[in-house]
Amino acid sequence: METKLSFKSYAVVGMMLFALFFGAGNLIFPAQLGQYAGENVWLAIAGFLITGAGLPLLGILAIGYSKSNDLQDLSSRVHPLFGLIFTATLYLTIGPFFALPRTGAVAYEIGIAPFVGDGNLALGLVIFSVIFFGISLWLSLNPSQMVDSIGKFLSPAILLALLLLLIMVIVKPLGAMQAPQEAYASGAFLKGFTEGYNTMDALASLVFGIIVISTIRKLGVNSPKGILSATMKSGIVAVGLLAVVYVGIAYLGATSTGVFGLFDTGGPVLSEASSYYFGTFGAALLALIITLACLTTAIGLIVANAEFFHKLTPGISYKKYVVIFSLFSLIVANAGLSNIINYSIPILMFLYPLAIVLIMLAFLSPLFKHDRLVYVSAITVTFFISVIDGLKTLTASLEMANPAWLQAIIDFYTSVLPLYASGLGWFVPAVIVITITGVIANFKKSVSPRPARNNI
Q1: HEC profile for the chain?
Q2: Measured between alpha carbons, how far is 189 from 169 in angstroms, rounded to an integer?
Q3: Are 73 and 370 in contact (CB under 8 A)?
Q4: How far is CA 404 from CA 191, 346, 389, 393, in A?
């Protein structure tokens, strides 16, 4: 007999998922959005919530709805080779290449660096990252305790600390909202939409989905319908909390410009606001928030990556992968936060459209009878647009001129693709291709010859 979960169970799993998603980047990017959007903050945060909260929920549900064993199983509907390459690339992106070392770098730069003298910043980062990734490694070696250690203790601590700050912002606003900066003066909604990519949560959701499903199964829910329902309820808890935090921090950023000025990133916004409201205690509070948020995310990413690559190459044990990824991330973290962010953005511009289209296909698949033609066509079209977006973003981040062949493609895309200038040029072509190939797939199924009956 299947277990019927209580609200408390949904809350615990939801808090675990919230903690897995929530890193310091989730604090920095909405704060920066608020500062730059100013009076247009509500339009901008609406777009941000779609990619920063809505898509992660859909990503988790896509794994359950499609009845896939994992992300590789889902993406292999395009082709087994694509499934392997895409899944490995996504894991490495949210793992040791970018998101995982970013957790340590952000925790140090925003939470710890203000207490370290300017002459000792590099040494301080080395010492802190050794401690940070050492703790992450130790906790990741026993992932069966994730619900207890993350869901029950760390997540409430993060939320409580945040709520104290956000309540003060609402009760005693810093100041009036200023005029939006150029990027948000027009098209604030679409700008917020693409800014949500920076959280990497939609990518992570395709990985964390199976963790949530496994946890729900351990609680006694085994039927596909029950798992999907429990996943949705737990996911709503997680993304609901994310949405509240995003809106609150964006409002903080929007009201802070007149008092603190405009910052390059959102980190100083939170640091200055904490000091403004709570003094030295505020700075210590922020350090606690940052460290806990980053630590919980790091644990989840290490566990997910180690489990995936151990499954891919059983000859290397799970524990060895935990050590490898922890040490690699420690090294990359010491390259500095700005370098990690700059080199991650081109990859995100490439991967995010593919991930979004894959999520769309997972839900639409029954309508076109799961025909591979639709998967291949939609992903191929999206790939040829998103790879150019990634290259364009890379040359811009390196302050290089685009090669002539690349510029010619960019000019062509700009002239023919709706929303291309906003980074969403892939959307309309993907929808058109899914529609056309979906009709073709259904037509093929309807006219395919049925096996003849043997009349005896």
Answers
A1: CCCCCCHHHHHHHHHHHHHHHCCCHHHHHHHHHHHHHHHHHHHHHHHHHHHHHHHHHHHHHHHHHCCCCCHHHHHCCCCHHHHHHHHHHHHHHHHHHCHHHHHHHHHHHHHHHHHCCHHHHHHHHHHHHHHHHHHHHHHHCCHHHHHHHHHHHHHHHHHHHHHHHHHHHHHCCCCCCCCCCHHHHCCHHHHHHHHHHHHCHHHHHHHHHHHHHHHHHHCCCCCHHHHHHHHHHHHHHHHHHHHHHHHHHHHHHHHHHHHHCCCCCCHHHHHHHHHHHHCHHHHHHHHHHHHHHHHHHHHHHHHHHHHHHHHHCCCCCHHHHHHHHHHHHHHHHCCCHHHHHHHHHHHHHHHHHHHHHHHHHHHHHHHHCCCHHHHHHHHHHHHHHHHHHHHHHHHHHCCCCCCHHHHHHHHHHHHHCCCHHHCCCCHHHHHHHHHHHHHHHHHHHHHCCCCCCCCC
A2: 24
A3: no
A4: 27, 19, 15, 15
Segment 217-255, tens digit of pLDDT: 888 888 888 888 999 999 999 999 999 999 999 999 999
Gap between the Cα atoms of 185 and 365, Å rounded: 38
Cα separation, 232 vs 316, in Å, equals: 34
pLDDT computed for residue 307 by the predictor: 86
* pLDDT tens sequence across 277-322: 988 877 787 787 778 878 878 887 898 899 889 999 999 999 999 9
* pTM recorded for the entire structure: 0.89
Burial category of 157 from C-beta neighbours within 10 Å (exposed 0-12, middle 13-18, buried 19 and up):
middle
Give Cβ neighbours of residue 225 (< 8 Å, ≥ 6 apart).
none
Residue 137 tokens, joined = 């490694």
Please count the other Cβ atoms lying within 10 Å of the Cβ belonging to residue 399.
Answer: 6
Two tokens, residue 42: 């509500």
CA 169, chain centre distance (Å): 26
